[in-house]
Amino acid sequence: MSAVDAELVARARAGERLSYPAGAPSAATAESMLEQQTRTVRAACERNPALADLGLDAALARLEHEWVPHRGALIHIEHHDVDPDAPTLIVVPGLGDHCRRHLALAAALGDRGFNSLLVDRQGHGLSEGRRGDAPLETDLGVLELAIALARSRNRGPVILLGDSLGGIMSWYLLTREPDVDAAICHCIGHPDVHPDPSFRRKAPLLRALARIAPFAPIPVRQIADYDHVALDPLTLRDFEQEVDPLFNFKVSARTVASYVGFQPGIAWERVTVPVLVVIGAADRMVTPEFTRRSLDAGRPPHATYLEIPEAGHQLFLDHLGSAIGPLVDWAGATLDPARDDFVASPR
Question: In Å, how far from its chain's centre is CA 218?
Fold first, then answer.
């Protein structure tokens, strides 16, 4: 390994800002940068009987890394292709998160014949940029870039699949009429719906802070209830101890404020894209009650609501065995209306 590559690996393992003045790193270097995160996903799958037969090794063998320029930064993409004519799901991670934590999801989709494209937002994962700094406009631009990449790379339909904040981001993008055939949003939001009454007082303070100190670091625990980020005790412990250096446990003030100030491009009632809104029935970080209130505040005509029984917030890791079947069934039924094997939650 060259000195340049060794420095990149060291910076990734320390959670430091990444930049690639000499060009994008090789696949081998990227995998070295992601070694700890890959071990964590393997461990989670090994202790979960529902994921015992998941094709993680096959997913790692077929994936391709790509870095794509966007607004002066190189954005990291993982391509998991199995069939150029199959649907491609664009996987959008959540608050502070990165795409390697969704390796198990990519493997499960591949096992079922779906391509996936996993994206690291600016300043997240292996993408360039100030760590934890990804305002909403930048995020939406990255999603549009990922959609264009998926369209140019494969011939099948394109589906957005957002997890946690990535679900909210995808839900917001739907009001800009993106070029997708369907969307799956684990978590949604609405500008007029708040998780608790105190948020009305916090919002003006966040906007003021963002104007004065846009890059001020805000711990994610002040944004969301990380006491309930996972039901699995070992996954919860990893969050409590902040063991993943690539996970941004602090994000910039302007990032938070940009989401608070979102205004839809069109009303959700005018969104024509079929969308599945999915939430864990036992999720206490982003609750089903909040999700239903957000959906009631602006419901697209082709929206379906689904609760995964007994699932918490880590829907695409600890509860992937329960979630993957209903998700791909919905995708198949939506893309092929002749199918009738999907049953939604009552709502």
Answer: 20
